Amino acid sequence: MGNRCFHYFEDLIFSSNLRADLPTIHDNNEDESLSANAIWDHFTNVMDMAETGIQAVSLLAYIFKLAISSQHGPVFVLLCLCKPVIRVFLWRSLWERAHVVEATDSSYIRLRALKEMGVEKYRQDIISGNIGEYILREHAQAREELGETSMGAPWQIYESTQSFGLRVMKDLAGDLTMLYYAWNAVFGPEKFSLASIAMLQHSESILRRTFSNGINQIGELRQSMNFMKRIYGITKIANVVEDGTLSYPADDQSETAGMSIDLRNVSFSYPGSTSKKALDDVTISIKSGQLVVLVGANGSGKSSLVKLLARLYDATSGQVLIDGQDIRHYRLIDLRGATASLTQDHHLYPLSLAENIGLGHPSQSLTENLVHDAARKGGADSFVSKLKEGFSTVLDSKDDQYSVHAIDISGGERQRVVASRTFMRFTSGRVKLVIADEGSSALDPQGEWELFKNLREERQGKTLVFVTHRFGHLTKYADLILCMKEGRLVETGSHEELMKNPEGEYFKLYDRQARAFTTDVE
Ligand SMILES: Nc1ncnc2c1ncn2[C@@H]1O[C@H](COP(=O)(O)OP(=O)(O)OP(=O)(O)O)[C@@H](O)[C@H]1O
Fold first, then answer.
1. ipTM of the prediction
2. What Pfam families does the database record attribute to this sequence (predicted)?
3. Atom of ligand 1 nearest to the CA of 467
4. pTM summary value
5. Using CA positions, which residue lies closest to atom 3 of ligand 1?
6. What is the DSSP letter of 34?
């Protein structure tokens, strides 16, 4: 039963995660804490609390009966309950109110950041940079600066801020039964037998403990119930990027045409971003079948632009038109099927290399000759064939604690596998837009040259949009070069046209790169 519940929660989270798009993940990132383990813990908490509740009611009935039979009546029962009841009313929990927790203490923030550097991800940099001592020193200093400030959880800190008077009142309420015994001992000793005092005291202390436990758990109960509610909430979260209804490509569209793209006054800010816009009033027209190259300094908005084309995000304002229609009107499944993207952010899946390539076209992922052909075009075949298990090799998944493989490949080899996946995608015959965002950044010059050559050979019926910092391979073949600066489109044209303006951004970027090879001047 436990296992089945656990798997049910696990599958629910897994399918919701797979369904969510990027802005939705951003908006709901608090739900990273949502795991089947956590839910199972909360579920068992609720069960424990129900048990405590039943215990408390039974004990109360028992004490009531005892008190009546020993002639102390309901007054004594009321006194017993005073403390727990007062605690209920004075209970102060952060979970009772909507709250946002933000750390503002700079020493606290620094201490947390330094602690974070203890994880494996930073080991190599810390060892090779020889900065272990530095981190320890800074950590000690931040700890000292933090002084007595609590590092506790926000809800604990909140509970401890209750006024002194109220806390004293809560404590005094616990001594009322003792006062009752004392009063009776002095003014009516005949009412008590030693046996009845012992029994009442014993039952009272059990009742108090049970109530205290229950009350301590009230905050947890709320937290647990809210947590459990969230699991059902995540299945209902609608994606921010809404689906459209139009098929793509439209039936009347030529089978052989690539995607045409128009951006009209497009501005874009990332969800939650308070800094400047990633794209600011960009207007672009890309014709069907063109080879377009996007250039610009770091942070100029190139990747953001191609993310809008892949509809990973929607523009904040303005319009993106695909073949004359608003991109939001098309069915997402069609648009994504018509787009092949190759970026430096792509990862390999913890599956075999064959599947890693084959998943470019999932329904043909096991078709060996297609996979091998894609691997050849992506430049992965030569290194894969040298691996002992060839295309069946499963790479070591660093996140899998039970993984016993020790096989890993270089950054450039990974990029070749991802590029092969893109060539595999072409075999669907549905691709009309190819986006390559620095997808060759880790390749050696020969590999990069071959990749671009192979991509150009596949360009029939496709529009190609490349993002690059390296001029040469691509810019000389470009039908259109778009030059970005600080989120704005500052220049467009062919290489020859743009090179005619020595004051232009493109000329400066090109010139700086060319001079690196011809002079020693910085
Ligand atoms: N996920 C994100 N959340 C918030 N801001 C982002 C995010 N990604 C990028 N930005 C910001 O958006 C702006 C444009 O970034 P973008 O990645 O589009 O630039 P780029 O031209 O591709 O840069 P690079 O050449 O370094 O890859 C930058 O100011 C960047 O800091």
1. 0.97
2. ABC_tran (PF00005)
3. 22
4. 0.72
5. 270
6. -
